[in-house]
Design a protein that fits this description.
heterodimer; A: 332 residues; alpha/beta; Rossmann fold; eight-stranded mixed β-sheet; four-stranded antiparallel β-sheet; 11 helices; 12 strands; 30% helix; B: 320 residues; 24% strand; globular; Oligopeptide ABC transporter ATP-binding protein (chain A)
């Protein structure tokens, strides 16, 4: 195997402007770059509207980017067209938030997963049954589930079927878009356990999109924190989620519900994300940030803090050990 | 100790779906005082919403309320008389649902919707009161009043729903997973706001949630419900410090912890997976400590450290 990352996102931009509010800043993804190493589980967290789902959809090719590249292994996925694109899709799969809308209600689980296998002709027809039964075992479904239809399954089982389909063609990368947020806590725990076990058995890398910091902390080794289309902090989970540097990450963590509430939860953001408040070329968090000051009217660069830990905040910039800065965004 | 505002005693509900009668709530008790936030926790399908809806006269079609009494303030109602419950409680009780946008009428501006509720209660100075209500829920009437539900954010929609709920000056608010559709930051703001309103107006709140970590900060007491049976109920602090019922322990072990990640221990099976026999502990099919005695009868309440637990494990200690 080569040493190339499974996924390399390079300066990806996809913006949606609101015709009713031409002066407001556009939502979407603006110039995001990051890598997912082979076999790595990377978490992508942020509030609704921060662009995390758009980013996920661009990565699996469900949405075309305005600019930038998606590189999967050694292929520029975003440059492929026609048959080559279709064939290559086997390498990037997605699991959606709501399995009830992403499964075909008229197909049994077996037929549904078989379709994925046949699409990419990954196994010979005679071996399909064996392969599908093995996949069911892998995601923790009983063999008799294979002959059922989606409406006969529970939410957790449906999500396992969605995972089965994604795994069927042995992809390089699976994007999981809020895979457990529609589930009960107890079912969520089951699905998360399965995902964690799976990760060791299949070679795929995972990009785990979620708004739940606790879930991300549990399952991901590295985390990206997104706000209004840009990554504001990234690094190993235990660093970013235990010692967050960016005020936004701190506020997200402070707001997370806990079994044992913290006596001093820390920073909290004011209000909601209002696009009209954010001016171009400034730090996007500024209007809500309790620590905002004059400098924040200029977008801060990404500051390298420690191995792999980076944050786009002037305060982080001040405390950064090196002066080796990379500009986080060309334009805001 | 203040008098309890709402007391539900021995509520039992049958479901008549698919032509079969099935007991879905069994001997449900609950007591909420004014100014208190009471947590009602359990997985989907455990009967949390059904119990609360039935106790204010809003049992869905296909449900048969078999027994139970509801005391609201000084009055007493039979739970089986849903019509009289509905008529008498509609002025004192407000509801808040999970999907705020679904609860608002898409064809009417949010200002008008709150105004309509307001007009049921008072005749004079509607506009002034309307602005005040918007201010109370943290919104600006001038900015938002003329907007339609699709033009506001999820958090704002939930605040508008809150304004509707508060417009009748209810003594009790039933909040059914009010923050599940919201972001964590908005969720926190919403719950804090709920707590402050509850203090200011001396309003009682029943907060229905499926996640124990949500109630930990804001409730003083709670009940944990599994398959229509209360398994553990009482003061929050001792329950969280030392959960006694295996189901409560299981729910806590299933929640991922942000501060100190540990292995998750999922609950096995599903809420209604056990036999349909009535006189048994309905958690036994999922319980790591299940024994033959669990199948014989519904475990009676055992009192310990300011809470009641329904489990044979603790019954033993009392008799010994």
């Amino acid at each position: 195997m080569n040493d190339l990352p499974s996924l390399s996102v390079r300066k990806l931009t996809k913006l949606f402007s609101d015709p009713d509010r031409p002066d407001a800043i556009s939502v979407g993804v603006r110039g995001v770059s990051f890598d997912v190493e082979r076999g790595e589980v990377v978490g992508l967290i942020g509030e609704s509207g921060c662009g995390k789902t758009t980013l996920g959809r661009c990565i699996v090719g469900l949405q075309s980017a305005d600019s930038g590249d998606i590189v999967v292994g050694d292929t520029i996925f975003s440059a492929l067209r026609g048959k080559a694109l279709r064939r290559f899709r086997k390498n990037v799969q997605i699991v959606f938030q709501r399995p009830e809308t992403s499964l075909n209600p008229r197909m049994s689980v077996y037929t549904f997963v078989r379709q994925a296998l046949r699409n990419f002709a990954t196994v010979r027809k005679g071996e399909e049954r064996v392969r599908i039964e093995a996949l069911a075992a892998l995601v923790g479904l009983r063999p008799d589930t294979l002959d059922r239809f989606p409406h006969q399954l529970s939410g957790g089982e449906r999500q396992r079927v969605a995972m089965m389909r994604a795994l069927a063609c042995e992809p390089e990368l699976i994007v999981l878009d809020e895979p457990t947020s529609a589930l009960d806590v107890s079912v969520q725990a089951q699905v998360l356990r399965t995902l964690k076990d799976l990760q060791g058995e299949v070679g795929a890398s995972f990009l785990f999109i979620s708004h739940d910091v606790a879930v991300v902390r549990y399952i991901c080794s590295r985390v990206l924190v997104m706000y209004l289309g840009v990554i504001v902090e990234e690094g190993p989970s235990e660093t970013v989620l235990a010692h967050p540097v960016h005020p936004y990450t701190q506020a997200l963590l402070a707001a997370a519900p806990r079994i044992t509430p913290k006596p001093d939860p820390g920073l909290s953001l004011t209000g909601e994300l209002v696009l009209g408040d954010v001016r171009p070329h400034e730090c996007p968090v500024r209007p809500r940030c309790p620590l905002a000051h004059d400098r924040c009217h200029k977008a801060p660069p990404m500051a390298d803090l420690s191995s792999g830990h980076r944050a786009a905040c002037w305060l982080a910039h001040d405390s950064a050990p090196s002066t080796n800065m990379t500009t986080a965004r060309e334009r805001t | 100790m203040t008098e309890s505002l709402l007391t539900i005693t021995d509520l039992s509900i049958d479901s008549l779906r698919d032509g079969t009668r099935r007991r879905i709530v069994e001997g449900f008790n609950l007591s909420v005082r004014a100014g208190e936030i009471y947590g009602l926790v359990g997985e989907s399908g455990s009967g949390k919403s059904i119990s609360m809806m039935a106790s204010v006269g809003l049992a869905a079609q296909g449900l048969d309320v078999r027994s139970g009494t509801v005391n609201f303030g000084t009055r007493r109602f039979a739970a089986s008389d849903q019509k009289s419950l509905r008529g008498n409680l509609s002025h004192g009780v407000s509801l808040l649902f999970q999907n705020a946008k679904g609860a608002l009428n898409p064809f009417i501006t949010v200002g008008k919707q709150v105004e309509r509720v307001l007009r049921r209660r008072r005749r004079s100075d509607i506009q002034g009161e309307l602005k005040e209500l918007f201010r109370v829920v943290g919104l600006n009437y001038a900015d938002l009043g003329r907007k339609y539900p699709h033009q506001v954010s999820g958090g704002q929609a939930q605040r508008v729903a809150m304004a509707c709920a508060l417009a009748t000056e209810p003594a009790l608010l039933i909040a059914d997973e009010p923050t599940t559709a919201l972001d964590v930051t908005t969720e926190r703001e919403m719950l804090r706001f709920l707590a402050s309103i509850c203090r200011q107006r001396n309003m009682a709140v029943v907060l229905i949630a499926h996640n124990l970590s949500l109630v930990s900060e804001y409730c003083s007491s709670l009940s944990i419900l599994h398959a229509g049976q209360v398994v553990e109920t009482g003061n929050l602090a001792p329950i969280f410090a030392e959960p006694l019922h295996p189901y409560t322990q299981g729910l806590i072990a299933a929640v991922p912890d942000v501060d100190s990640p540990r292995e998750l221990v999922p609950l096995i099976g599903s809420v209604w997976g056990g036999s349909s026999e009535l006189d048994r502990c309905r958690f036994s099919h999922r319980c790591p400590h299940a024994m033959p005695r669990c199948e014989r009868r519904i475990p009676p309440a055992v009192k310990r450290d300011g809470r009641e637990v329904h489990c044979v494990l603790y019954e033993q200690e009392v008799s010994a």
